Amino acid sequence: MKRPAAFLDIDGTLFRSSLLIELVDRLITEGVFPEAAREQYAYERTLWIDRQGTYEAYIDAVVRSFIIHIKGVHYGEFAEIGRDVVREQGRHVYRFTRDYINQLKSEGRFLVAISQSPKTILDEFCEGYGFDKVYGRMYELGPEDRFTGVVLDEHLIENKANIVRRVRERDGVDLSNSIGVGDTEGDIPLLEEVSLPICFNPNQALYTHARRRGWKVVVERKDVIYEL
Predict the structure, then answer these.
(1) Which of 70, 111, 113, 145 could form a disulfide with 75 if both were Cys (CB 3.0 to 4.6 A apart)?
(2) 9-64 pLDDT per residue, tens
(3) ∠ CA 177-180-181 to the nearest 5 degrees?
């Protein structure tokens, strides 16, 4: 009998920040990345903090900086720093999605985590939450276990609907009663593929789309959780 599936975005949906942002910041602090790496997304970060730019533009700039500076970094050093980030921040999550995951697990659902963060740190983070499958950005390793800077299977993670289809084909899950949770317009392709889309703390673009489509919208503010 096929298990019903649930797909959850991680950054900003379960984790209260971005694993990638926290990882890059730590890589710079530890001297693995140069300080110049921070400068490559500083402008977009300032615009986002001042609410003059979008979070998508900010995270895209962080991704570009990461791809440039990960080249030549040893996997072991990278993985250890990722473990440190998760040890310190792995419980910095939203109550709604944390408790909802427990409910979904009790229902016997096949849980899938999706993120633009590197799969190495994502695997570490998701281990404590009982996900059955984890999809994140994967980076090629070259000689001596050093990163080449090449992104693997980028087409898959760029469109989250592709992940839903892959899980259906490879894991034989039931999509007729599937659930998806996301927080930005990048999650729209995922939410379009499931039976029950949930927009959690959505940005303006996703909120506008959700209202037009009649999707469920949930907001967590401080210690209050409510539906719009």
Answers:
(1) 145
(2) 999 999 999 999 999 999 999 999 999 999 999 999 999 999 999 998 999 999 99
(3) 145
